[in-house]
User: Fold these one by one.
Assistant:
Number 1:
Amino acid sequence: MDKIKNADKIKIVDTTLRDGEQTAGVVFANKEKLRIAKMLDAIGVDQIEAGIPVMGGHEKETIKAICKLGLKASIMGWNRAVIKDIEHSLECGVDAVAISISTSDIHIEHKLRSTRQKVLESMVKATEFAKKHGVYVSVNAEDASRSDPEFLYEFAQAAKEAGADRLRYCDTVGILDPFTTYERIGELISRVGIDVEMHTHNDFGMATANALAGVHAGAKWVGVTVIGLGERAGNAALEEVVMALKHLKGIDLNFKTEMFRELAEYVSLASKRELPAWKPIVGSNMFAHESGIHADGALKDPRTYEVFRPEEVGLERQIVIGKHSGTSAIKAKFEEYGIVLDQKEAEDLLARVRAAAVELKRPLFDKELVYIYEDYLHEQTKEAAN
Ligand code: MN
């Protein structure tokens, strides 16, 4: 297993309540935000980005309420590089602020209608103001992945000198791949020597891979959302990053991973976003085996087709009986009903099960299996009588 620099210091900042809620069409109720914050804290997240205080109203009140929960996690407010924004954050009682401004020319010219010089000045002023008030500061380089690298180094250096605690490297439009990420983050850290957070988006399906590549290059923080909820194709998923660090990189962050499925279901309900069966780590199909060879292996020893145990993420193993089943799965399934089949019976039933599954174009429910078995017994008695 590859060794990662600073492996013991990797920290997770979850932004389900900020970047996750920014997803088109998603709104959390205030109570839902509080409950999600509590669950994130219980699971072991180091920092919770709770929202955008300058929005005022319910958003600000909820962030205040989250700060009053007395959680172990640090609570961060999101801000533009504007003093007024930071004042709203401070009024909420957060202990950390994210100060965000674009560093790419395309954003500076076409969105901010500003200049590199003004971007630097606003960021430095906002950072110095926040540090004067004693909060932890993450300076967010929005669209960092499309920024001129030389300007990004200058920006990061200025942030560091203004007292920023870390730089959030935002792959805002999700155009990185792991190889590029590794090179760029390595270079950034060696040039500037500032703590880096990976904030990656999943437009090309590489958010988690890019986050890991950043960690490999020395990034100490990873920004995530539950089930990868986020704009467009979403963000790096909390459950994917934590489990990949643990099982692929040997870095155990000691999270209560057994809560992952429950948290995923809750965020899915609250955001009205479906949780697909094939979702990595928490999808209901993660531990479902139908194919004869896989089910046989998983029944003999789950490690043959499973990298970690279902209980580790709050799921259960299921043997699905359908077109691709084999006799050992049929036997195991009927044993659950207290029926011990011999090989001949298992083979006879398998033929009937397969025919039914093809006809219905789906696996079979337990009840259907029982009916097939009863029909089979009925035929056997009739044959014996003849
Ligand atoms: Mn984002």
Number 2:
Amino acid sequence: MPSNRTLLIAGNWKMNNDVAEAAKLADELAEALSEVPAGVEVLVCPPTIDLTTVHQRMSAAAVALGAQNVYWEPKGAYTGESSCAMLKSAGCTYCIIGHSERRDYFHETDEDENKKAAALIAAGIVPVFCCGEPEEVREAGTYVKHVTDQIRAGLAGLPIESADQIVIAYEPIWAIGTGKTATADDAQEVCGAIRETLADMFGAELAEGIRVLYGGSAKPGNIAELVAKPDVDGALVGGASLKAADFASMVVKAGE
Ligand code: PEP
């Protein structure tokens, strides 16, 4: 993490916490994160049903709110979906897109992620664009190409004019929720390749400012070595974001 980029520690609650449970966790987080270290930004991404509650409960805390999904059309007959304007009205300034669980279980494609990213950017919401390879691609040794192809297809033609309009999260699928964290060197190798791809697509100056996170069993015990790497600008955190003490400890350790 070079000094000109603010670290981002982002929690992805996935499909966990009903409204009462979300209110409790939000209250615990607001207390645990009453002091966020300088140079670190904190983001929580609860399920859609919990967004308004978490926004209200955490309004006094220096914590940004993000959604886990969006649909690109502005309104209409799209049962079960939420628009950018709806997310914005609930207090979201970020939205995760392209998570491997959406790609795998809901068959989302790079083209879908591209439309979602374009709609979010137009609405002034920052996409947290996820990419990452499955285990067989890692074993075949073609993971850098796999991930950079996802970046090229997912971000093609986006009108990105400033580095704070997008965040990338590199999440090797074999490390998500498995306890198998990539080593800090593994994370750096791919995050560095992502930055080179961003430079090729959007210019070196812009790419230098874009945050590239690592995700996959990140926890209090490994966050410091991950963010010590030059191209790792924080973490997208699943399991460890569901316990206020663990998540807050990651924020503190990232800032040390
Ligand atoms: C995630 O799903 O974004 C994630 C990184 O999960 P975990 O931290 O539990 O591996």
